[in-house]
Amino acid sequence: MRIDVWSDVVCPWCYIGKRRLEEALADSGESAEIVWHSFQLDPSSTNDDPRDLPTRLGEKYGRGREWGVQANAHVTEVAAEVGLEYHLDQAKSVNTVDAHRLLHLARDLGDAGEVPADTQGRLKERLLKAYFTDGLPVGDHATLTELATEIGLPAERVREVLAGTTYTDDVAADQAQALAYGANGVPFFVIDEKYGVSGAQPVDVFKEALRRANADRKPVTLITAPGATDGDAECGPDGCPI
User: Fold this and answer.
1) 158 Cβ neighbours under 8 A, 6+ residues apart
2) Alpha helix (H) residue ranges in the chain
3) pTM score of the predicted model
4) Could you tell me if 38 and 6 are in contact, meaning their C-beta atoms sit under 8 angstroms apart?
5) Exposed, middle or buried: residue 230 (CB in 10 Å: 0-12, 13-18, 19+)?
6) What are the start-end ranges of the H helices in 29-92?
């Protein structure tokens, strides 16, 4: 089973959705290849905005700083229910394009066998924890280099990507694909290219989507005539029975 996930590393519901998906997979006994795709919630954000997160949220949605404080408190409580520790009072303003570019690097190196196949997933987890729990500036190149090398990416390749524009088009292509699927927000999950789950839905919703996807992949039940054996009246690569 393959699950494609669009999310941002500064999206609080994306981290919660990740945990709920992981719980659903564990409860269902399913194994899946999870591919992380880029989605920037605010491509215009900068790494040097002096405003704290509640102020930024309140101004973005036109509801004031106090609303931002209450919104952060609510999502922090929900995160705790799935075992996550949020410290949103420490969250730094960042532009996430470079973090997403490194996630593409991790995916490519994993596909090429240069790093373990799960490296992209481990980098995604580390970036989320860095932002939400550790209060680290995940738009800063030095911080990104430290986090990426910590989970096993080659430092030289990381610095090379951050110094240029490699994968910028891939980040944009991911965002365009999400919009083509009809996803205007994240997290957004697509299971086996058939079933979509929008938002950090309850675990039972993920389990139902996994169940349906798994049912679609089960082999058909063969019905044969009494006494017939496998291979009767059918042709294969080696010819046809007479």
Assistant:
1) 102, 105, 144, 145, 148, 149
2) 12-28, 53-61, 65-81, 97-111, 119-132, 141-150, 155-163, 168-180, 203-217
3) 0.89
4) yes
5) exposed
6) 53-61, 65-81
- The conformation of residue 236, written as its DSSP 8-state character, comes to B
Count of CB atoms situated within 10 Å of the CB of 196: 14
Q: Are strands 188-191 and 195-198 parallel, antiparallel or unpaired?
A: antiparallel
pLDDT at 215: 87
Backbone φ/ψ region at 155: left (φ over 0), alpha (ψ -120 to 50), beta: alpha
Tell me: pLDDT of 123 over 90. yes
Phi/psi of residue 197, nearest 5 degrees: -125, 120
Strand, helix or coil for residue 183? coil
Those residues with Cβ within 8 angstroms of residue 133's Cβ, 6 or more apart along the chain or in another chain: 84, 85, 86, 87
- Give dist(CA 131, CA 112) in Å, integer: 28
- C-alpha to C-alpha distance for 9 and 96, rounded to whole angstroms: 7
Residue 239, pLDDT score:
53
